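Supplementary Methods S3. Input chains for the assembly prediction are listed below.
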Amino acid sequence: MPEGPEVECTRRYLHPLIGKTVKKIQLTELSQKYPKYAGKQQDFYWFDGQQLIDIERSGKFLIWRFDGEKVILNHLGMSGKWILLKKNNQSLTSHAKALIYFEKQPHAIFDDIRNFGQFKIFESYKIVLKYDPIRKMGIDGLAKPFPMDEFLLRFNKPNYASKEIGAVLVDQKLVAGMGNIYKAESLALAKINPTRLVKTLTKKERKELGLAISKTLWKAVDCNGSTFSTFQIPTGQEGSAQHWHKVYGKHGEACQDCGTEIIRIVQNGRSTFFCSECQK
DNA sequence: CCGCTGGCCTGCGAGC
DNA sequence: TGCTCGCAGGCCAGCG
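Predicted structure tokens for the full assembly:
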């Protein structure tokens, strides 16, 4: 599910929770099996009676803010999702890791099949901002208007120069919220071949790429994100962004624009898809 | 500091 | 039809 646009859709889905008072945050037994959920149940007692003030998105992170100082940093990993419990007797999902009970329904369940997600306490908002993955984040790909100048600036980082653009583009220090699907789709929209070295991209191409990123990510938000196999966001609604993908997952199929076969390559251990005719 | 490899997990489906 | 195996939207530790 979760690249920046899917995390943004999740944030919107959770919006009705804002203003509610926490009754109890409970970690499931299952959560204790995994190091990334190593938080102790007793540490979460602090949140009893706290009012949820806001849920912010920063790149692919959600930051849960309360009226007291502590915050919860939450990452969906590869398979994390939030489910709002609207009925009393609704049963828990099989990979539930954390439950937030409010004084009134709905309650919220964080479910994470592959256990790559995060749900951890930080002592204050200031401290979470100093946490490296947040502090070092690049521009937010969903920022409006798209921060072109800073994008170009970060793009100039010397250590990117001799790397392939397809490998660089998923770096959260360049564009926070970018992931493997929208990387491929943004490059397709900008008609740039993912194997191009960053230093060979002209300023015009870099700008076009920036615009393509913004367009691609926002279109995904507007479609409620991409839904694949069992992943959906949020529960009950399906995203439809996958329907307009030009290249992602389409290896072996004909390019919709020129008929050339879409190919798949591996960069940084991740799949990249493109049309070698349209993307030069 | 940098880049690369492999590891963390479960579930799905392509292909034999 | 059933099984295996590769692969999956993310990230990081450890190594040289």
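The helical segments of chain A are 4-14, 125-130, 132-135, 148-155, 165-168, 180-189, 203-222. The first strand of chain A starts at residue 22 and ends at 27.
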